[in-house]
Write a structure and sequence with these properties.
- The complex is a heterodimer of chains A (about 325) and B (about 350).
- With about 325 residues, chain A is an alpha/beta fold.
- Chain A has ten helices and seven strands.
- Helices cover about 40% and strands about 10% of the residues of chain A.
- Chain A is globular, with a radius of gyration of 19 Å.
- Chain B is of the alpha/beta class.
- Chain B has two domains: about 180 residues, Thiamin diphosphate (ThDP)-binding fold, Pyr/PP domains (Rossmann fold), CATH 3.40.50; about 130 residues, Rossmann fold (3-Layer(aba) Sandwich).
- In chain B, about 40% of the residues lie in helices and about 20% in strands.
- Chain B is globular, with a radius of gyration of 20 Å.
- Classes of the chains: A alpha/beta (about 325), B alpha/beta (about 350).
- Chains A and B meet through helix 5 and helix 6 of A and helix 3, helix 4, helix 5 and helix 11 of B.
Amino acid sequence: MTSGRATPGTTLDAGDALFTMQLIRYFDERVVELYNQKLVRGSAHPYIGMEAIATGIISALGDQDLITSTHRGHGHCLARGLDPSRMLAEVLGRKSGYCRGKGGSMHITAMEHGMLGADGIVGGSHAIAVGAAYASRLQGRDTVVACFFGDGAANEGSFHEACNLASVLDAPVVFVCENNGWALSTRASSTMRIDDISTRAAGYGFPGVTVDGNDVHAVRAAADEAVARARSGAGPTLIEAKTHRMSAHSAFATGETSTTEELAAWAERDPIEALVRRSISTGELTDEAVAETRVRARAAIEAATEHAVNDEQPDPETAFEDVYASSHWTKEMRLA
Amino acid sequence: MSENMMRTISMSEALNEAMHEEMERDDRVFAIGEDIARNGGLFGVTKGLLPRFGAARVIDSPISEAAISGAGVGAALVGSRPVVELQHFDFVTLAMDQLVNHAAKWRYMSGGAVTVPLVVRGPIANGVGLAAQHSQSLESWFVHTPGLVVIMPSTPYDAKGLLKAAIRDDNPTLMLEKRLLYTRTGEVPTGDYVVPIGVADVKREGDDVTVVAISGGVPLALQVARKLEPEGIDVEVIDPRTLKPLDLDTIVTSIAKTGRLVVVSEGARAGGYASEVVARVIDAAWGSLRTAPIRVTAADTPIPYAGPLEREVLPQVHDVMTAVRNVMEKGRTQHVAV
């Protein structure tokens, strides 16, 4: 079980949360290994160190709810319960991947999991989340949309337009800003004159809160409140979850960013180890349970790897499919 | 059927009827845009929708083209059928990321997992002195973006039928409407009908020259055809109506008969849609051409304000006339496929 299907309103299940977070960690470590083996084309953006955010937020959602995601989106997908085998197959561009090899790491989409699609454009999904939330309500559904984005995206105009539109429409959206301190190689602190991105919510007339993004319980608590507010029809909330990007920007862009001292300080606050310490001290988990959970997560990633590397390449002919919903227009796509 | 009576109405009235009928027919359809609800739209296309369908489905938006287009994409992903109005089509520049990187690609990137039944429509206000930021024909940008359907109607009948088809279609569709055509009238039946996407219409049959004309080019071409009739020049006028996907077969069939092609488009010349039509015809019907095709387009300048300046750079009747005479003259002696 992953935490992606937890019942809304219940407290976080430590075992489920640990499994999800460990699964995300192992998955993205594996993706980097496969990139270095030249099995991943382009690039991939690890979610390492940020696992508590996706896990905490998504554990507060129900089956009818939706998420939008980013270029750094594997964590959101896994927390939402997507199959790691089909995810890794997509990252490797294989036939059984969620997008049949057409999207890759940055575009994993799974409507059956309420995953509206990851987005390679920074700031690209804010308005999509607002529209999906508003339209779901218009159709009589009790849906909340969680919209994940980074600190960099909070400087895109699209963020501001979407916040304002969400506010005037009372759209049931939870904006989740994953402030990991870095926009590729540029420090967030050098691109904005505020300490907390959550303060921007006030400019649009809805609540903004800042939480410790490495504390899955704190994230979950903020999410519970924001989801309840959205579901009640009271409108959006901005949650800023402060964390740190523990890896390079991407498998491709591996230049130095954080200082050694910074990384050491944040490693002390590793969200997985923090959850383990807390759960053992409260008696929610035993050392044995922790070890067993890690073995299970590791096994899932090994099985996913086995599946993905042995999966078939897509048939080149399928490049012409899915451009339009009307298949009789496929001849338009080919070179004459 | 008695309800299918012909009446003469304007293109904006025809578009307005399409909105009313589709919102009545399908409660997944909603409208969003600037000044579209209380004001009924700057050109009346959404008139009367607010009292009939309510503020939840007829939304006066903030001036946020990116957000309303993006919201349209999101709404379409979850099964709604949004119609987004851009107050002037030039403002599409503010929505480009949502249309080009999102609407056009979401289905493809997902391997066919989603559909995006979104309509984005708005006017091109050339010819009225609104200058360079309200007068552009930007259709070729979107034809150049795989995944989008691009429509440009020239008559009230086509406008109504195509908007209804676009709303029912599962693809993201852009509809560019020439503002000066809004007030032109034409016959439109009462009752439901659609004009199929991807099917051209022969607006006038003729044996000597094929004029492929788009949007405002259609009335110009028809005017030229009438003027040249006494001289014994028989012009066939084809309106593709849908630019992407293009009904090339209708054009090629016509050229097999005439051997001569003129393309009239109000977009800028370089990289424009007229060039695309010429290239497609050369690929598909080189052997039928008696002489080189001619493009009649806007000049490669921004659209200027003053009347004499604007008329200088936009296609005029005499430009089309000259082009038709030119292919007639050269086509008497030349045959390109030697």
